[in-house]
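Reopening this ticket.

The earlier resolution said the output was attached, but the attachment link was broken on my side. Pasting everything inline this time so it's all in one place.
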Amino acid sequence: QVQLVESGGGRVQPGGSLRLSCAASGWTLNHYVIGWFRQAPGKEREGVSCISSRDDKIYYSDSVKGRSTISKDAANNTVYLQIDNLSAEDTAVYYCAAGGPFLGLCIPEAFASWGQGTQVTVSS
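Inline output:
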């Protein structure tokens, strides 16, 4: 059974950083595209960053480009998302999802398996 579990969320002050983890079990993440998405209250779910192991493609949304890094640890079957210089606009529930095997569009419709989400709140 494919499972994805996010962790690392919490409350952070503006200007701070967070590293979110997406741990996969039941399958090998190297065979899939892994995406990070977020959904703020009253807004649609949006793609934040996606990484493809098959062709080494990486995507960042304009909202996090330049202050975010997505990476994967094949040995631990985990994908990480680091976001720096957080602001209130980054407050959302963050989800990881699996799709692929090649990165096309980093949009929710392209991903079939989802984690339960982790809350990120940026507030002073």
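Reporter confirms the inline version is readable. The chain has a mean pLDDT of 93. The radius of gyration is 13 Å.
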